[in-house]
Amino acid sequence: MATADPRTSKASEPFDIVATYNDLLRSDPDLTMPIAAIEALVLLLTHSPSSTISETLDLLEKSTAHLKKSIPNPIGLSAGTDLFQRYLITTLQRPGQLGPAGDFNAIRAHLLSNSRLFIRRAKESRDKIAAFGRGFVRDGSTVLTNGGSRVVASLLQQAADEKGGPSAVRFNVIYVLSSPKGDIESPTAEPEGMETVRALRAQGVPVATIPESAVAYSLGKADVVIVGAEGVVENGGIVSRMGTYQIGLLAKAMGKPFYVVAESHKFVRVYPLGQYDLPIEQHVIDFKTQEDVDTAKQQQSKPAAASSTAQGLNSEFHPDAVDFTPPHLISALITDSGVLTPSAVSEELIKIWF
Amino acid sequence: MANTADPALNPVSSPPAAPEPASKQSNTKMDQPQSQSQPQPQGQKAPKPAKPAKQQQPPKDKNASAAPADAAGSDKLSPAELKKKAKAEKAARRARERAEREQPGGGAGGAAGGQGTGTPAGKKGSDAGAAAAASAKGQKGIPRRGSAQNVPQSAAAELKKKQEDKNVAVFGHLYGQQRRTTVAGAGKEVHPAVLALGLQMRDYVVCGSSARCVATLLAFKRVIEAYTTPMGTSLSRHLTTHLSHQITYLSTCRPLSISQGNAIRALKLAISSIDPSVPESEAKTTLCEFIDTFISEKITVADQVIAGSAAQKIKDGDVVVTFAGSSIVKQTLLTAFKQGKKFRVSIIDSRPLFEGKNLARTLANAGLEVQYSLMNGVSHAIKDATKVFLGAHAMTSNGRLYSRVGTALVAMSAKERGGVEIPVIVCCETVKFTDRVALDSIVVNEIADADELVVTQPPHQLTDLPDPVAAAQPEPKKGGKAAASNPSPTESNTASNKDGSPLTDWRDTPNLQLLNIMYDVTPAEYVDMVVTEMGSLPPSAVPIVHRMSTNL
């Protein structure tokens, strides 16, 4: 919090929750979206002089809505904001000194201190998951994974780490790297996950990198698929990086177990019925004729001719695009509250919400 | 008694049955005494049947002539044949004794059979019954079939059995008692409001799980209002038993729904938790308030919440398929329409209740684009569907949907056709959740009166053609009448009405069973989402929510 304070005090007059959230995400590479959202909300509460419960809740609701609106993909984020809001409400409704009858300032102080504890715990959950998930990486097995999930990385690293457990597991990794995306800022940026690949190789784990088009080809050599998730939805499916769904389908077709690694604060109260039922707008499929392409080019050539190719790529494929992997493709979810079947997710969610 | 001799001599299975109708017509009355004095010498008996056989119609001449020939043959029997016959007699006696043992009221059965043969239909029935008996007992042996004195009696027994067997065997456990037809015989404790409600439920005037639940609770509210605690007992103790009478009455009108059961359980719990020291009027007010809260919380407001969240799932350009007439689905569709969404509704309906008709009318009146088709057209209706919305009678603890029969078919068609692309969404209040488990739709179900399947309004005939059914019937009464008074359309119409449905006399038609089942079970794999007032769930989460909503 110490690092965040100066930054936020700078913008303290009207507290900008969106900027705070983005800053938090950028400053700490280990931070996940829901936790960043919760942290931003905690900062908001410390900065705003609310004096009643309803005022606090109202403020929270407004800034949450604002935050959700200004972020292109608020699924992961909403897990955090929902959780925090729920936590606040249950704390406030609890009878006793900290309940509605108590002193509000005491309640506020309690809430804030507890929220920080909550954040710390959430960060620790990654280690917990790694401990649960170790058993899924067997000696001599080959793991296929994708994306830049930090939980997956920590799980694999811990499995390979000789100090972490009784003995290191010897395993191979097939890392699916997404084709280079048209990132405007650095078109030659390395694909997501390269960092993990380097770290694993440094630990002595043999890693093969393959493009997304080679998943079906390589899956025969893999024993298990482990992927991360941006959000775990109510029916036990996951919202994850574009390309996870097809890996899931292929794994199902080939009879390979498909495990998802996710912290339980990524559970979201969203119930998508299919790919196009996600509560976000994604323009992944964009039909164009040559005419459309030409007019788009003309418009682009006016501001910056150099980045036109990159722009063209970018509009075709948004780097943050996600897809939805339905629950029947998932063998199990490895979370910090244990290894769950997809159908147990809704049970966990209900427990949190009621 | 030609039959007695016949089969013994030529043990072929089919010919003996053929001459029966003619011979029996004259013989049935003599059957009983004769079968009692069975061990008669064959020679005396044999000639008798020759006479009726001779009266037979020309087409059956072959058989008829065969019978006398046999009879003549029996006059001069070879020792071997005599021995054979004696053996047959013995076997027949044994078989008859066995039949009598099987049917304790054997005599009564025979009498009933005798009466039955008076009417042509009854006779037909007994004939076929005999034939069926012959084919069914075929393995047990020719000797038994040969014991033809036995045939009429065993036919009568069979007839009686057949009459009982109008229940479809697999669902035999569901028949139970007949639904109450009048209020006669209802206990004096039963409140008039409950009496009326019972009949309304029986006639499907009050139909649908939620509607029945609400109506029951409202009726019970009136019961409680009219209730005074008798001397020497407390309200919390006596009111429960008083309500039990009402409940028993209601369940004789139509088996209680899961929602009704849950509501009653909640009400009883509320009654029993009333402190005996609370004055009666106060306790009654509390209970009435409880009922009102229950209705609004569990059904009225719950429906609004469900309609709201289910309507969110409807997108512009959707084609929503629904089955029969669920009130909550109706509310959902209307809510989505009010939100300005542009979608089409395709209603699939089925006999005999046609619950979808009301839904179609309401939605069309509201301005929605509605397509109405019967179950037969389900594959066409599902072709352009994008979503399926279903109502529920209950959700079981293994996540299965228990709903109006046909629901499973619609859900399955959607899944088989579209897989994940056509999501099947169930709208269901948590009051309909049950901790029971349904593996199939046989163990738990409801059987309605099979006559509901029979009654149909034949399509009004515009062309004045003679009714093919009536014309084809060789029966002198109707056929003659129809032919004679053909010009009068009303008469031919009534005639065709009488025979309009070939099933009208299904109870007297042998080998015919009618099944009017009310519900079926949709496997959890066919359901993508259950929308409840506590949020959207996968079907696997039903038991958790049920546990929570009952423990709160």
TrEMBL record, chain A:
<dbReference type="InterPro" id="IPR037171">
    <property type="entry name" value="NagB/RpiA_transferase-like"/>
</dbReference>
<dbReference type="Pfam" id="PF01008">
    <property type="entry name" value="IF-2B"/>
</dbReference>
<keyword id="KW-0963">Cytoplasm</keyword>
<keyword id="KW-0396">Initiation factor</keyword>
<comment type="similarity">
    <text>Belongs to the eIF-2B alpha/beta/delta subunits family.</text>
</comment>
<dbReference type="InterPro" id="IPR000649">
    <property type="entry name" value="IF-2B-related"/>
</dbReference>
<comment type="subunit">
    <text>Component of the translation initiation factor 2B (eIF2B) complex which is a heterodecamer of two sets of five different subunits: alpha, beta, gamma, delta and epsilon. Subunits alpha, beta and delta comprise a regulatory subcomplex and subunits epsilon and gamma comprise a catalytic subcomplex. Within the complex, the hexameric regulatory complex resides at the center, with the two heterodimeric catalytic subcomplexes bound on opposite sides.</text>
</comment>
<protein>
    <recommendedName>
        <fullName>Translation initiation factor eIF2B subunit alpha</fullName>
    </recommendedName>
</protein>
<dbReference type="InterPro" id="IPR051501">
    <property type="entry name" value="eIF2B_alpha/beta/delta"/>
</dbReference>
<feature type="compositionally biased region" description="Low complexity">
    <location>
        <begin position="296"/>
        <end position="310"/>
    </location>
</feature>
<dbReference type="InterPro" id="IPR042529">
    <property type="entry name" value="IF_2B-like_C"/>
</dbReference>
<dbReference type="InterPro" id="IPR042528">
    <property type="entry name" value="elF-2B_alpha_N"/>
</dbReference>
<keyword id="KW-0648">Protein biosynthesis</keyword>
<feature type="region of interest" description="Disordered">
    <location>
        <begin position="291"/>
        <end position="310"/>
    </location>
</feature>
From TrEMBL, chain B:
<protein>
    <recommendedName>
        <fullName>Translation initiation factor eIF2B subunit delta</fullName>
    </recommendedName>
</protein>
<dbReference type="InterPro" id="IPR000649">
    <property type="entry name" value="IF-2B-related"/>
</dbReference>
<keyword id="KW-0648">Protein biosynthesis</keyword>
<feature type="compositionally biased region" description="Basic and acidic residues">
    <location>
        <begin position="88"/>
        <end position="103"/>
    </location>
</feature>
<feature type="compositionally biased region" description="Gly residues">
    <location>
        <begin position="104"/>
        <end position="119"/>
    </location>
</feature>
<feature type="compositionally biased region" description="Low complexity">
    <location>
        <begin position="120"/>
        <end position="141"/>
    </location>
</feature>
<dbReference type="Pfam" id="PF01008">
    <property type="entry name" value="IF-2B"/>
</dbReference>
<dbReference type="InterPro" id="IPR037171">
    <property type="entry name" value="NagB/RpiA_transferase-like"/>
</dbReference>
<feature type="compositionally biased region" description="Polar residues">
    <location>
        <begin position="485"/>
        <end position="499"/>
    </location>
</feature>
<keyword id="KW-0396">Initiation factor</keyword>
<feature type="region of interest" description="Disordered">
    <location>
        <begin position="1"/>
        <end position="161"/>
    </location>
</feature>
<feature type="compositionally biased region" description="Low complexity">
    <location>
        <begin position="32"/>
        <end position="76"/>
    </location>
</feature>
<comment type="similarity">
    <text>Belongs to the eIF-2B alpha/beta/delta subunits family.</text>
</comment>
<feature type="region of interest" description="Disordered">
    <location>
        <begin position="459"/>
        <end position="507"/>
    </location>
</feature>
<comment type="subunit">
    <text>Component of the translation initiation factor 2B (eIF2B) complex which is a heterodecamer of two sets of five different subunits: alpha, beta, gamma, delta and epsilon. Subunits alpha, beta and delta comprise a regulatory subcomplex and subunits epsilon and gamma comprise a catalytic subcomplex. Within the complex, the hexameric regulatory complex resides at the center, with the two heterodimeric catalytic subcomplexes bound on opposite sides.</text>
</comment>
<keyword id="KW-0963">Cytoplasm</keyword>
<dbReference type="InterPro" id="IPR042529">
    <property type="entry name" value="IF_2B-like_C"/>
</dbReference>
